[in-house]
Automatic annotation (TrEMBL):
Protein source organism: Roseovarius aquimarinus
UniProt keyword annotations, A-Z: Membrane, Signal, Transmembrane, Transmembrane helix
The protein, known as: Ferrochelatase
Transmembrane intervals: 43-61
Leader sequence segment: 1-19
Length: 62
């Protein structure tokens, strides 16, 4: 009975020692984020200015 318990204990200890595989670990590539520059800082201002100029021209024509 002692030999059976000893064999079970040794086999349990040996199975955890060989867990895993022999392949090299896979490293993920780092994520590189590139910042983009806007073409113009005042690009969103032109449309309201044009609309305002058109409205002013219509009012002035009356």
């Amino acid at each position: 009975m002692k030999k059976l318990v000893l064999a079970a204990a040794l086999s349990a200890a040996a199975s955890t020692a060989f867990a895993g595989n022999m392949e090299a670990p896979v490293m993920e590539a780092p994520v590189i984020v590139e910042e983009t520059n806007a073409s113009s800082s005042a690009a969103g201002v032109w449309v309201p200015l044009v609309v305002l100029a058109i409205v002013a021209a219509v009012i002035a024509a009356d």
